[in-house]
Amino acid sequence: MPNLDNQTVQLALVAAVALLMLFQMIVLLAVFFVIRKAVRSIREDIENLRSSVAPIIDNTRELITRLTPKIEQTTSDLAVLARNLRTQAADVQSAADEIVERVRRQASRIDTMLSNVLDAVERASVFMADTVAKPMRQLSAILASAKAVIEALRTVDPAAARSRPNHAPGDDRFV
């Protein structure tokens, strides 16, 4: 075996390190080319995406620009409409409350009037009953007594007249 002195070992180590560094440089160069190719591919994809999305973004921006004043106008119109509706609803509510109050007053008035009319009718009927019925009873009593006197005078036998009833057959009214 050859003589392994210090210089030979150092030379072998330097050669091994140089060889490993060359291998590392080749690997790093390969990684560099792969990354460079990936970056190009990503750039192309981004450009394709940008070219397809850019018109959509521009159209959307243009649409928003055109619609913004209309949306703001519509919003303000809706706010005015809501205020007007609230005002009109309050007016309708106050009118309805007033109508209900008037109807209550009129119903109370009609109730009072009808009660007064019915009371007057009842008083009139009681008055009529007393005014008409009492003289009719008296007249009926006078006529019954006149009939009894006439019948008593027509009969020859006064005892027979007393045994007969004072009313006609089938007349069950009390006199």
Describe the structure.
This protein is mostly helical. It has one domain (7-163). The chain contains 2 helices and no strands. It has helices spanning 6-154, 158-163. The longest helix is centred in the middle third of the chain and has 149 residues, at 6-154. 0% of the residues are buried.
Provide keyphrases for this structure.
mainly alpha, single chain, rod-shaped, 175 residues
Give the N-terminus to C-terminus distance in angstroms. 176 Å
Low confidence ranges: none
Order of helices and strands: HH
Largest sheet, in brief, is: none
Radius of gyration, in Å, reads: 65 Å
Total count of domains:
1
Q: Kindly state the number of beta strands.
A: 0
**Coarse structural class:** mainly alpha
Helicity level = over 70%
> What does the average pLDDT come to?
87
Report the total helices: 2
- What would you call the shape? rod-shaped
Q: State which percent range the strand residues make up.
A: under 5%
SSE order and pairing:
Elements: H1 6-154, H2 158-163
Task: Give a quick summary of the entry.
With 175 residues, this protein is mainly alpha-helical. It is 89% helix and 0% strand. It has one domain (7-163).
